[in-house]
Design goal:
Blueprint (H helix, E strand, L loop, with lengths): L1 H28 L4 E11 L3 E2 L2 E2 L1 E4 L9 E9 L8 H8 L5 E4 H4 L6 H27 L7 E4 L10 H12 L13 E4 L2 E2 L5 E2 L4 H10 L4 E5 L3 H6 L6 E5 L2 H13 L8
Helix pairs in contact: 4-5
């Protein structure tokens, strides 16, 4: 009896292994519901994009700025792209890649066209909120001042904070004639509401890498995402957490003047 069981075990194990191997084979080659993201482009909102000013203001005097305010993006595989197990495994061991549920990156649908339309709509809402928040901050009337924002090939709401700071810098600077940037290259991310609340955006660990690549040493990050931003922080990058527009302006003004308390993650 024992002899028969022992002899039949290799065959039984082999038979059991077949469906397991088939499952692994299916998973290895089947598309998975993930997107793979990496550091994307950065754009100075105080400068030009594809030959056009990112921020154009009429109806109020503007000032010439120095320094840079860089909004930062991530580049993710499209909603209809095939992401396979090999892509996930490769990205797992790289600090410049992140694997995220596809629905968290593209909540609007499964096609590239649907995703683009959704992202453009969010960008428009973000720009409107940024304009309202900035004009409210400097005390200008939206009925008299017209702000036009131009940023090609970028969607989503995560540039809201940097748009707002860019408008303020062009209109008012630090409130005393100086640059909000202090002549430095400042990067950051965060949504903005019309009342000046800064919201989380995701992908901040990749965004800090894009910012460092493009010359920034200071990064404004939504308070709620400090831990994520610190996880793969490039050497020499300073994180400044912000919860409101007033937080961001106060921190940049203190940084420019070299005095005052500047929060850190």
């Amino acid at each position: 009896m024992l002899t028969r069981l022992t002899r039949s075990r290799p065959r039984a194990l082999a038979l059991c292994a077949l469906p397991v191997l088939a499952l692994f084979g299916t998973v290895a080659f089947a598309p998975l519901p993930f997107s793979v993201a990496q550091p994307g482009q950065t754009t100075d909102v105080l400068g030009d994009d594809k030959g056009k000013p990112v921020i154009t203001i009429s109806g109020a005097p503007t000032r010439t700025t120095t320094g840079e305010l860089r909004m930062v993006t991530i580049l993710a595989t499209g909603p209809d792209a095939d992401v396979r197990l090999s892509d996930v495994v490769d990205s797992w061991f790289r600090t410049d890649r992140a694997v995220m549920p596809r629905d968290s990156v593209y909540p609007a649908g499964d096609s590239t066209e649907e995703a683009n339309q959704h992202n453009l709509a969010e960008m428009k809402e973000s720009q409107d909120a940024a304009t309202a928040a900035a004009l409210s901050y400097v005390g200008d009337s939206a009925s008299k001042v017209k702000v036009t924002l131009n940023l090609a090939d970028v969607g989503g709401p995560s540039a809201g904070l940097l748009f707002t700071l860019g408008i303020i810098d062009k209109l008012d600077g630090d409130g005393a004639g100086g640059d909000l940037t202090g002549g430095k290259t400042i990067a950051g991310t965060g949504t903005i509401s019309e009342s000046g609340e800064v919201g989380a955006v995701g992908g901040v660990a990749l965004k800090t890498q894009a910012a460092a690549r493009d010359g920034a040493h200071v990064f404004l990050v939504p308070k709620a995402e400090c831990s994520d931003a610190k996880s793969e922080l490039p050497a020499g990058m300073r994180l400044i957490p912000v919860g409101t527009l007033k937080d961001a302006v106060a921190s940049l003004t203190a940084l420019e003047k070299g005095s005052g308390k500047i929060p850190s993650c």
